[in-house]
Write a structure and sequence with these properties.
- It contains five helices and eight strands; from the N terminus they run αββββββαβααβα.
- The chain is an alpha+beta fold.
- The protein has a single domain, classed as C8orf32 fold (Roll).
- The strands form two sheets. The protein has a six-stranded antiparallel sheet, with helices on both faces. A two-stranded antiparallel sheet has the order 2-3.
- The radius of gyration is 16 Å and the shape is globular.
Length: 190
């Protein structure tokens, strides 16, 4: 199922934007509620297990941020759509959160995740990137960009960092959403 959605490694924010765009075209949001979830922390250094870029499932990768889609489907409950996971796609929220963020290992506080939830519709409407965060100091791509146009909206400007910022209450240019810790995510969606 994962193969039917557009994907470019290292561009999780755009992958989820394209996924939301496709699901909206398929009218998938009419029968369920959904959140785009930015995963990071105040240090922008977050340990995440079961990612494709990891050498093994037992080893975490440390990302500055990661983005997933969380959908509640009437018969299935909350499902996580993560195009970069080694777990199923989509995966039950209970399995995803326990395997991805608390797989039985003690995680140093500076690597613990925070989660910014934004409605999928607001994300499609407000998110904007010019991909400048993927350029090195010489202006070269750190990783090859997607073949599609960047979801950049001049009215919104480059606002990726507003979504990644995990300080409570930060919401630039009309963005909304709330920031939760892992236990609050588990209480709410699991």
């Amino acid at each position: 199922m994962r193969e039917k959605y557009q994907y470019c490694a290292f561009y999780c924010d755009e992958n989820i934007w394209k996924l939301c765009e496709k699901l909206e075209q398929e009218s998938a949001f009419q029968d369920c509620s959904g959140y785009v979830v930015f995963i990071s922390n105040l240090q922008q250094s977050c340990a995440i297990w079961h990612q494709k870029t990891s050498e093994s499932a037992d080893l975490p990768v440390v990302f500055d941020y990661h983005v997933i889609l969380l959908l509640e489907e009437e018969k299935l409950g909350w499902q996580v759509w993560d195009l970069d996971t080694r777990l199923r796609f989509p995966e039950k929220a209970v399995t995803y959160f326990h395997e991805t963020f608390s797989p039985g290992y003690e995680v140093d506080e500076e690597l613990r995740p925070l989660f910014r939830l934004v409605s999928a519709q607001d994300y499609l409407k407000n998110y904007s990137t010019d991909r400048s965060h993927m350029l090195d100091e010489n202006g070269d791509w750190q990783e090859p960009p997607p073949h599609w146009d960047a979801p950049y909206h001049e009215d919104n400007g480059m606002n990726l960092f507003d979504f990644i910022n995990m300080e409570e209450g930060v919401s630039g240019k009309g963005l909304n959403g709330e920031v939760l810790e892992l236990q609050s995510m588990l209480n709410r969606f699991v």
